[in-house]
């Protein structure tokens, strides 16, 4: 018994330096992002970026063609037609959404559609692989990331949808699930996961959330209320706007390491390490290239 106890104590003493060494080798989230190589990033196609010009500046939004191609294509068409010129962000609910478009519902479209079939989720015959977050979620069987977007799935991974994290881009609708087509909204502040699979989410803000947060809350008599100067496809205005963005590939080793770093923060400031992160609390690294 004495020999066994001595052996155990020696084992603990000998193991301590190894554990300390392993801890010291863990990288912070910032270090992972800084050292990720170029192959672990993807350049966002200008055809998939919408520039929305608001009173205080422009927001850039990436469209999610994989999960909601009908809505993404229709918005491009609306932008090309100049549909949003002279319209406004007419609804602002603190901590919820900023909603814009044609409050009168009377402005005609040309080749675009005013009502679209709902794309609440993408159904596939075989499981769709995502970078999955392990752990419980109150709204879905599985959560994770696909092509730079936060997503959720059913247990079989045959239904996949973009979730209502802060800064998502979605299409408002009436009681008819196929009534959405022109009235977009952006989530402000909190995640709104209870809306998942009740409405079509088809993008996220890459840059410019501050311009949504700076919108007026109430109309001022004699002044235009949150006017939209224009909504344009970035590829169509490359002569005047050369903005380029890159997003870390969410199936890359760097992003998977980033998930672990966010779950277990190694920075000296942190006292607790929960070994958990919610899908909407996991930021997707996004950078302006030019």
From TrEMBL:
Alphabetical list of Pfam families matching this protein: Pro_isomerase
Keywords attached to this entry: Isomerase, Rotamase, Signal
Domain PPIase cyclophilin-type: 55-233
Signal sequence, start to end: 1-15
SUPFAM superfamilies: Cyclophilin-like (SSF50891)
Enzyme Commission number(s) from the entry: 5.2.1.8
One Gene Ontology term of the molecular function aspect: isomerase activity
Cited InterPro entries: Cyclophilin-like_dom_sf, Cyclophilin-type_PPIase_dom, E_coli_cyclophilin_A-like
Protein's recorded name: peptidylprolyl isomerase
Native source organism of the sequence: Pseudoalteromonas shioyasakiensis
Upper lineage: Bacteria, Pseudomonadati, Pseudomonadota, Gammaproteobacteria, Alteromonadales
């Amino acid at each position: 018994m004495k020999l066994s106890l001595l052996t155990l104590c020696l084992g603990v003493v000998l193991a301590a330096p190894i554990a300390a060494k392993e801890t010291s080798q863990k990288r912070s989230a910032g270090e992972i992002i800084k050292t990720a190589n170029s192959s672990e990033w993807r350049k966002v196609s200008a055809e998939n970026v919408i520039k929305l010009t608001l009173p205080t500046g422009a927001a850039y939004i990436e469209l999610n063609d994989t999960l909601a191609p009908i809505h993404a294509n229709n918005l491009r068409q609306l932008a090309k037609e100049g549909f949003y010129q002279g319209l406004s962000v007419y609804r602002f609910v603190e901590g919820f959404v900023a909603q814009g478009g044609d409050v009168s519902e009377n402005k005609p479209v040309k080749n675009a559609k005013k009502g679209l079939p709902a794309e609440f989720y993408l159904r596939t015959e075989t499981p769709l692989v995502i970078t999955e977050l392990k752990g419980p979620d109150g709204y879905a069987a599985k959560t994770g990331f696909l092509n730079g977007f936060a997503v959720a799935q059913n247990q079989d991974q045959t239904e996949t949808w973009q979730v209502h994290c802060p800064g998502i881009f979605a299409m408002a609708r009436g009681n008819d699930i196929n009534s959405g087509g022109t009235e977009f909204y952006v989530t402000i502040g909190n995640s709104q996961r209870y809306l998942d699979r009740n409405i079509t989410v088809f993008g996220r803000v890459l840059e410019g959330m501050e311009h949504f947060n700076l919108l007026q809350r109430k109309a001022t008599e004699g002044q235009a209320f949150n006017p939209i100067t224009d909504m344009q496809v970035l590829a169509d205005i490359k002569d005047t706007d050369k903005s380029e963005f890159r997003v870390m590939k969410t199936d890359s080793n760097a992003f998977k390491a980033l998930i672990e770093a966010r779950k277990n923060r190694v920075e000296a400031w942190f006292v607790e390490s929960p070994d958990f992160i919610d899908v909407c609390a996991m930021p997707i690294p996004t950078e302006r290239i030019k």
